[in-house]
Structures are given as structure tokens and as C-alpha cells.
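Lab notebook page, bench 4
Experiment: in silico fold of construct C2
Operator: M.H.
Input chain length: 471 residues
Purpose: comparison with the prior construct
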Amino acid sequence: MDNKEVKSAIDKIDVPKEKVFNAIDKGLKMSGQGGKTKKKKVFAGLATAVALLGITVASGFINPTMNKVLANAPLIGGIFQEFDDSMGVELANQDAVTELNQSLTKNGVTVRLTNAYFDGNVVSITGFVDKSVENGHNEKGEVSFDVNFEHNKGDNDPWLNGMSTGIKKVNGGYDFQWKMEYPYKAIKENFTLPITIHYINGIKGEWNFNIPIKQEKYRTLAIKQEKNYPEVGIKIGVDEIFVAKASSSLIYEMEKEYKDDDIYIKKAIDDKGNVYRFGNGTTLAESQTGDRYYHTIRIEMNKLKADSLSLTFYPQLFVADPKVQQRLDKKSFVLKSKRSNLALQVNDIKKDREKLVIDYQFLGLSKELSKHRLELFDNNLEYSFMLVDQKVLDKIDPENPFGPENHSISQNKVKIIDAKTAHFQSIFNLNGEEKFNNFKLENTVLQFDFSTFIGVKELEPFTVDLQKDNK
């Protein structure tokens, strides 16, 4: 297959980027925390998307005849070419990038911020850090920033949600790009963004900058139309579309029966047949009324055509299945999913010194496991179980469901017994990285999460009139 065929094949694949970006972002945050490092679960059906995003993630998902755009890019667009950022290149072509020249040196390390742009849902800042950063704790060629925006502290900074960093080795140091999701619903056309870099590669400095941010000309389409899916307890309300210079953003609301259910809009097609893809999403608001949960989301999309009269949306539902559990006072039992036909038949449980071996079969699968699905099962099974001391069950935070230290184990090693019958064993090390003190079968609860094994549910497409409130 030549390059043209590869590009054509990639362009035809529907990639649920919001789920993948969120998974990548959470995985990166976990890996940077030290201590326990967990391998992220992969949603069934997303593995191919993850691989493809390795090729396209830095492109901002907008790809308007990339070669032509790059060929015409002015000098300022060079930094965006480094990071395959087609949105940045297009904005540079339109003179919609703010040039910066702010430089600070702390503890021998110089940071210079060079460019900034704001387009719909994306704020980008590029810069340079000199090679003195190699005196820090990271491996050579690695650069990491401990940074906050608007004087926020630590992880309680809305600008860090979904933030990505690109690094390129250049003469004398490293170029970098930060891309953030604008965290507020109301768009400020002009504002100053305070930035504080606390550490670079472990080198403390407190590099402080105040960056001018400008949203170029845009228009807003008020839509206020909704679609109800009572069979799954979901309602989607399309609020408005924000059309910027190089992209658009869709603001929509979700009303849900199950708090952790997630809606991803796979694509949209206008009345002229133009297809629109979606990228990163930002949660703007969350609330609960009675037993219903409400979320307001802004998500990137390709720039809306000016002559589009309607849009048909193709939503997908990612089902969150409540965890099920069983005390290990018996050696065989069945765990049943609450929102699918899946079940787990536990055949036997054996304790061998510092190892606990659970033998089980997956029930309710619609078809035999292919090699690809088997790899997903293997990965997900490693992190779908949790052993918990029943005495500390009530101490687990539902919003951060990790078991108390020395009283729980959330990782296991999976052994495939028979792929045709979905027969596996999970082996828990009771005295490994996660320890379980004074382990006794009769005092231990086994929890299992079926969520990542439930397939994505395609919801009925729905159409909104773009002219209804915008004539």
C-alpha cells in the first residue's frame, strides 16, 4: 500500500477521539504521579483508533490538503510544522497567531515563549527551553513541565484537563508546544493568561509569564434543539455552534440516568454531504437533579461550511456498568453484569503461598474472541478486578475508586487457558507492589467492572436545523 492509499484509508476511519484523548491524558497524568502506575484500560473497538492517533494526534484532527497549506505557510508557521499542527499553520496563513517575545532565566535555565493562538476550543502556546534543562532529573531528550495557569494550584487547574505537550530537539535546546482546551463557556475575545512554570525536569525556578490571548473573528449559531433516547435514559441537547477562523466548536448538553455513561458524537453530515469530525471535549458544567445527571460539553469540530442548512449527528453511547462484587467465602459463583448479557463464571479460587489464582470463564459473548479482541480482553482483565478487605469497603471513594493501601489489590496477571471458550486465570501477588496484609479468603471481597467489555452502542442519528434561530 503506497502513501496515498494509507492516507485514504486513515481518512475513512471514524476515530472516537474524545474517548481516546481522555484515556491518553489520564494515563499520562497517572504515570507522572510516581508510586503506583497503572496500565490504562482500552475500550473494545478503540485499539485501532489509538494506533492511528499515533500518526495523527498532533495534527489537531483538521487536515485541509496539508501539503498545500504547509507549502504556503509563512515563516511564523514553521514552529507549527514542527508539531504537525495544521490548525496553527492555517492560522499563521491568516495572520491570526500572536507573536511573543517573553524570556526568563531561572537557576540557569532559560525559557522563551514565542507564539500563541486561540481558535474556538483550542489555546496553543509555543516556546523554547535551552539545553541547560538537561541538568535536571529527566533522561536526555526528555522535557517535562510542572505548570499552572491563572494562578491555579496543582491539579485543580481547569487548563490542565486535556492539556498536551509536544517536544522537539533543536539547536541549543528544545522547542515545545502546549495545547489546552479553553475551560470556560463564555468566550473572552481578548485576555491575559498568567502562566507559572514551577519546575522543568525537576529544576525549580518559578518562571512567570503573562501572555496576551486573542480570539479572532468568529460567529455563533444558536440551535437549542434536542433528541431523547428513553430506552437508554439519555437526552442530548444541541445548544450552539461556535465558528472560528480555522475550526468550529459544538456545545451540547447530556441528561443521563447513569452518571458515568458517556456520549461521543462520532461525526456529523450537513445537507450538502460535507462530513465533520470531532476532537477534544471540555466539560463546562456538571450538576444533578434528583436521579438525573447533567453535563455541558464543548467539543472541537471541523469548520462549519457557511452555506450549511442542517446537520445530522451520529452519537455513540459508552455504557458505564456498576461494579459487581462477591465475598470469597465460596470457591465458585457467577458475577452478572447489570446492564448487559455478560457474566463471569468463577470456577475455582486457590491460594498458593503469596499468590491467589482465580479461574473463570466469560459468558454471554456474541462471538468467539478474535486475536484482536483477545488482546483487548487480556489488557482489560488485568485491571477490571479488585480484591478488597471487607473491613475497608466503606472507605473507598466512589469518585476515586482505589482501595486503601495494604488492604487491596487492583492489578493481576492474566493467563489464557482457552481462547475459544473465553477461559482465563487471574493471578494476584499478595505481597507485590500492592500488598494485602493479613489476607484471608473469607474476609476478602472480589469486585469486577464489566464496563470496558460492553460494546459501544450506536444511537439513532438526529438532525438539527441550523437556520431555525439564525435567520
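Observations: The domain at 97-214 is CATH 2.60.40.1630 (Immunoglobulin-like). The radius of gyration is 24 Å.
Next step: discuss at group meeting.
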